[in-house]
Write a structure and sequence with these properties.
Elements: H1 14-22, E1 32-35, E2 51-55, E3 58-62, E4 83-87, E5 96-100, E6 113-116, E7 119-120, H2 128-132, E8 167-173, H3 176-180, E9 190-195, E10 206-221, H4 230-243, H5 252-256, E11 259-260, H6 263-267, E12 271-283, E13 288-300, E14 307-321, E15 325-341, H7 348-356, E16 360-361, H8 376-380, E17 381-383, E18 386-401, E19 404-426, E20 433-459, E21 463-489, E22 497-509, E23 512-513, E24 516-523, E25 527-539, E26 545-558, E27 572-584, H9 590-593, E28 602-605, E29 612-624, E30 629-650, E31 660-684, E32 687-702, H10 707-711, E33 727-729, E34 732-735, E35 746-748, E36 763-765, E37 772-782, E38 785-795, E39 798-801, H11 802-807, E40 852-854, E41 857-872, E42 875-888, E43 911-912, E44 919-929
Parallel strand pairs: 6-9, 22-28, 39-43
Antiparallel strand pairs: 1-2, 2-3, 4-5, 6-7, 8-9, 10-12, 10-44, 11-16, 12-13, 13-14, 14-15, 15-17, 15-18, 17-19, 18-19, 19-20, 20-21, 21-22, 21-23, 21-24, 23-25, 24-25, 25-26, 26-27, 27-29, 29-30, 30-31, 31-32, 32-37, 33-36, 34-35, 37-38, 38-41, 39-40, 41-42, 42-44
Length: 930
């Protein structure tokens, strides 16, 4: 949704940046730049432009000039303390959840606001959570251990529409006062992205330059499930069948003639990936700055029949008229084509069938029945979505006088997605053929227009006053349609069976008007005070106010390093203390603004539902030894009132298949955290380096739940004083011993000592949201060689993998892991694994504390080594080799410990539905500029 960026925070162009840096110390206008530059002899060896900017209540990073060759920019964001990026899966085009400073909702939108070239984009797409509504939220609880469904959408991750090679810089806005300037869009933080403008900001003219960046590589599944082979499976199935009172499915003859199928080998492959970006940029004598680029990405998925193709075009033009007026036009268009096997793009149910499939041929289970072909859905069912996106932006800046300017701007964004899902296979009994065709369409549009006025004046050399006034109008509309047609062909019957259904929906927001005022006062470059106020107003067609909210923010800073009593410390360059406060909301984000679709009706949303987050933070910035060593430290507390949500609750006492209800309610949340960032540049003879370590902690909890939580007898997944993402589980109390009527079966702890096991005995345990995050970035340069590495770590959280819970237990319904072989016998009673057979479990779908796995890990996210072939003036060329996701430590036995298969909802964090694995990628590339 379009959102005005006040001049207090805008980093519009390189020219603007330079102007700001020359002004006196002012909280809103001076970007305190901590340049990590090497000596002149090494300047060409390190990526230029790697800087940390300290602005209003926010530490932002400008990433290296040469970005890592990721498919989206989201993977780079973890370099900022307090930012966590978790993909829904590893499927080509998969969404990712980006969380900044914890969570401020329960099942609503957790994504930050994305701002590209000063205007919000990508923020009101058809997210997976909106498309599938509550139907694909986990029916979570101790009696629903087989849940593998994941929310999905025909619309792919919108950040794929922005090639990394077209990006010039990235900033993360997370401070209390800074996010308050974004009002009803600021609760989840802000990611500001600036695309390339063309010529260097300091150049007067520049001849046309052609730039090419291309790379290719191969992908492979980094880690697979360690499953039983054919003989081990057959032996275990025989034991399970006997324990179930059935004859052994595999005879002695069968065991000696088994053939084997590794189903993971059948569906996974080594897949190719390639990316190409060609651009032209320059600056004419008539002061026309231009940048034009074409980009192509082709990714074959590691799961057969999956793929992604991206085509992208971008043109950025900027014309200066005289010394006062600058006009800019930016247009970007893209097309994404995908192929996704199975019904769910993240392939959770499909891969669960693959993992549980019998490796033995003939394939039988403990009931003696033949198991179906697990490859059926891979080969005969799948989605083919296509998304086309157009983004056009226009802005004009007029400089009336030094320190006094006016900026007008507007944009239009449109995304159109068509998806077809087809099925063509024989029924399990081979007596009929099933043909199914689903079609989906999503058409979303947004408009915005606004202005901002900036005024700054210096009084008596020591007093700096800055004022900013801005206004924004924004509007959004989304239309969807869905049809399904199914035909069953049965030659043994007269005629075929047909069924069909369809649904349409239209939602439109009344225009939203957002005026903002900000005032800053700075004294002698040592003391700064900033105050701002934004209001978001919804107006009906007759201009009558529908609703409005106010969002104040402010910050104070003390540049203590400029005080006389520290002036004699030669190693001290900067020491600044700061404290801020601000209010925000998420009501103008996807899930706050738009309620679940009302099928078959046109719904006009006249006002959003409101949550309100108040954030307090404080911190310091320190630089030493000519800014070669820097430290940033921040503490914060965020409290969210009325974090609206819809919880899928299970009703107790309903037998083995409890019924569910959707319960809307409000919850108050609290987040507290600490963020530390340590940076350094150093040189040892010819070796130069840039190092950056970012660590953060976050503790979230349900603060004061509403009355429904205190009195409701149903499972809601929330408890006062517990983390938002706690797991409700039974606690296993060992295995019943010999002498018991249930010897060898799982024993659950009767927590309330009422003589029975039911939902009242389940307890909240663990958390699916990491409490500690770590990122380490290292850059080394030696003559013409350069190395870059990025390490990411997540700690203090658990994963609940429903598929792995089945695989680790000898249920007899499918294959198992090697852990299942350590099952209980009369001679092996010191184990938590029950005897084989379904009778050993109170329910094979019940989850216990044994089902939780630690997610702690460190990942080598990126590694590259480059060699400079040519560096003569503007002519440059280099080659490089590298990889992504090369190494992951930890004890997790699933595909990947950093996954969010239940989507962006904090309540369901830590769920792994055995979804499409995140691949290891090996790359080789070339970059050139001429």
């Amino acid at each position: 949704m379009p959102q005005l960026l006040p001049a207090t925070l805008l980093l519009l162009t390189a020219t603007t940046t330079a102007t700001h840096a020359q002004r006196p110390d002012s909280l809103t206008q001076r970007l305190v730049s901590v340049k990590l530059d090497a000596p002149d002899s090494l300047a060409a060896k390190l990526n230029p432009g790697y800087r940390v900017y300290c602005t209003l209540g926010v530490v932002t990073t400008i990433t290296p000039f040469i970005f890592p060759s990721f498919t989206t920019v989201q993977s780079v964001l973890t370099r900022i303390a307090g930012v966590q990026v978790t993909p829904y899966s590893g499927a080509p085009g998969a969404w990712s959840t980006v969380r900044i400073r914890g969570v401020a909702n329960v099942t609503g939108n957790s994504q930050p606001l994305y701002v590209v070239d000063g205007m919000p984009v990508y923020n009101l797409n058809m997210t997976p959570e909106r498309w599938t509504s509550i139907q694909y939220r986990p029916q979570d609880g101790p009696n629903f251990g087989n849940t593998t469904t994941s929310p999905f959408s025909p619309v792919s991750n919108p950040l794929l529409d922005l090639p990394v090679e077209d990006i010039d810089l990235v900033e993360v806005v997370k401070g209390a006062a800074a996010t308050a300037l974004y009002g009803a869009q600021g609760t989840n933080g802000v990611i500001r992205i600036s695309t390339r403008r063309g010529a260097d900001g300091t150049a007067s003219t520049q001849a046309p330059r052609v730039r090419y960046a291309g790379w290719g590589g191969v992908q492979q599944v980094r880690q697979r499930y360690d499953l039983l082979d054919a003989r081990q499976y057959a032996d275990l199935i025989n034991v399970a069948a006997v324990n179930n009172g059935r004859p052994a499915p595999y005879s002695v003859t069968d065991l000696s003639n088994l053939r084997e199928t590794d189903w993971q080998d059948e569906v996974f492959r080594v897949a190719a990936i390639q990316s190409h970006n060609l651009s032209l940029n320059g600056l004419t004598a008539r002061r026309t700055r231009y940048y034009a680029a074409a980009d192509y990405l082709r990714q074959s998925g590691v799961l057969i029949n999956s793929s992604l193709s991206r085509y992208s075009l971008r043109t950025n033009l900027e014309q200066q008229f005289g010394s006062k007026l600058t006009v800019g036009v930016r247009v970007a268009a893209s097309q994404l084509d995908q192929r996704q096997p199975g019904y769910e793009p993240d392939a959770g149910p499909l891969l669960q069938n693959i993992l549980l499939a019998s490796p033995a041929v003939p394939a039988r289970n403990a009931t003696g029945s033949v198991t179906p072909d697990p490859l059926r859905d891979v080969a005969t069912a799948g989605h083919t979505p296509r998304t086309r996106r157009l983004l056009a932006q226009l802005q004009a800046t007029y400089q009336f006088a030094p320190g006094f300017s006016l900026r007008l701007f507007g944009s239009r964004e449109q995304a159109l997605t068509h998806d077809a899902y087809s099925v063509n296979y024989n029924s399990p009994d081979n007596n009929s053929r099933i043909l199914r065709q689903d079609t989906s369409k999503v058409d979303s549009k947004s408009w915005m227009a606004g202005m901002e006025m900036h005024y700054q004046r210096i009084l008596r050399e020591r007093h700096t006053l800055t004022a900013n006034l801005s206004y924004l109008r924004q509007q959004y509309k989304c239309e969807t349609s869905y049809t399904q047609r199914q035909e069953t062909i049965n030659p043994n019957q007269n005629g075929n069976a047909f069924s069909s259904l369809g649904a349409t929906s239209r939602q439109e927001l009344f225009p939203t008007h957002s005026p903002t005022a900000a005032l800053t006062y700075a004294y002698d470059g040592r003391y700064e005070l900033q105050a701002a106020l934004r209001t978001d107003i919804w107006l009906k067609d007759n201009f009558a106010p529908s609703d409005s909210r106010w969002f104040p923010g402010g910050e104070i800073r003390w540049h203590i390093g400029k005080e006389k009593f520290l002036g004699a410390v030669p190693s001290l360059n900067t020491l600044t203390l700061k404290a801020g406060a601000g209010r925000t909301s998420s009501s103008l984000t996807t899930d706050g603004l738009l309620q679940p679709f009302i099928i078959g009706n046109n719904t006009l949303v006249d006002k959003p539902s409101y949550d309100l987050t108040t954030q307090l933070d404080a911190g310091l910035h320190l630089s030493l030894l000519q800014e070669k060593l820097t430290l940033d430290a921040d503490v914060y507390q965020r409290r969210t009132l009325g974090a609206r949500t819809v919880v899928v609750a299970t009703l107790p006492g309903s037998g083995s298949n409890p019924s569910t209800i959707a319960l809307p309610l409000g919850v108050d949340l609290r987040n507290r955290g600490l963020e530390l960032t340590l940076g350094s540049t150093w040189q040892a003879n010819s070796l130069a380096g840039t190092s950056r370590l970012a660590v953060a902690t976050n503790h979230n909890q349900v603060d004061e739940p509403q009355d429904q939580l205190r009195t409701s007898p149903v499972y809601l997944g929330l408890e006062e004083g517990k983390a938002v993402s706690s797991f409700l589980l039974y606690e296993q109390d060992g295995i019943y011993p010999i002498g018991s009527a249930r010897a060898g079966q799982v024993r659950l702890r009767d927590q309330n000592n009422d003589g029975r096991i039911d939902m009242a005995d389940a307890q909240y345990q663990g958390t699916g949201l990491p409490r500690y995050t770590l990122n380490f970035y290292q850059q080394l340069a030696l003559k013409k060689w350069q190395l870059e590495a990025q390490l990411d770590g997540l700690f203090g959280y658990q994963l609940l993998n429903s598929t792995l819970a089945l695989l680790d237990s000898p249920t007899g319904i499918g294959n198992s892991t090697f852990q299942a072989l350590n099952y209980w016998t009369a001679t092996n009673q010191n184990t938590l694994v029950p005897q084989p057979g379904s009778a050993a479990f109170p329910s094979i779908y019940q989850l216990t504390s044994r089902s939780l796995a630690s997610g702690n890990h460190v990942r080598l996210s990126q590694l590259s080594i480059s060699y400079e072939l040519l560096s003569t003036g503007s002519r440059k060329a280099s080659v490089w080799v590298g990889g992504q996701n090369l190494l992951v430590t930890g004890k997790y036995h699933g595909y990947d410990p950093n996954v969010s298969s239940a989507g962006a909802s904090p309540l369901y964090a830590g769920r792994d539905a055995s979804v499409y694995p995140v691949a290891r990628v090996w790359q080789v590339g070339v970059r050139g500029q001429f």
